Every structure is written in C-alpha cells, then in structure tokens.
Amino acid sequence: xxxxxxxxxxxxxxxxxxxxxxxxxxxxxxxxxxxxxxxxxxxxxxxxxxxxxxxxxxxxxxxxxxxxxxxxxxxxxxxx
Length: 80
Hints:
Elements: H1 2-28, H2 33-79
C-alpha cells in the first residue's frame, strides 16, 4: 500500500510539472490574454481528470492486491 501511495505522489508531482510546463508554453507562445485564460482553464480540467484517473487506477490496484493477499491467506488456512 505504501508503494501505491508513493506512486500516486509521484504521479501528482508529474501532473503538476506537466501543468506548469504547458502553462509556460502557452505564455511563451504570446497568445492573447483571453485565449490564454481559456487554454489554462481547459488545461486545469484535463490535469484534474488525469489525477482522478490515476487515483481510480491505483485504488483498483490496491483492491486487487488486497484480494490476492486474502485469497493466499485463505488458501494457506485451508491447506492447514
């Protein structure tokens, strides 16, 4: 579980860096302020959805790992 939480932290950091890099790119393009604000808003939504997807995937992996460990424990108890 700690490994999955560490992975989630890494993904969140990567998402923040991606957002910052793309924001810098938008600013450097010299795009008009209103259009830049629209791009930034859309970018925030994309990064937020990406973060949600990452959390859902990690939650699924954690649940699968817990199920596997419970199955292994049940098998050991059954074999005893």
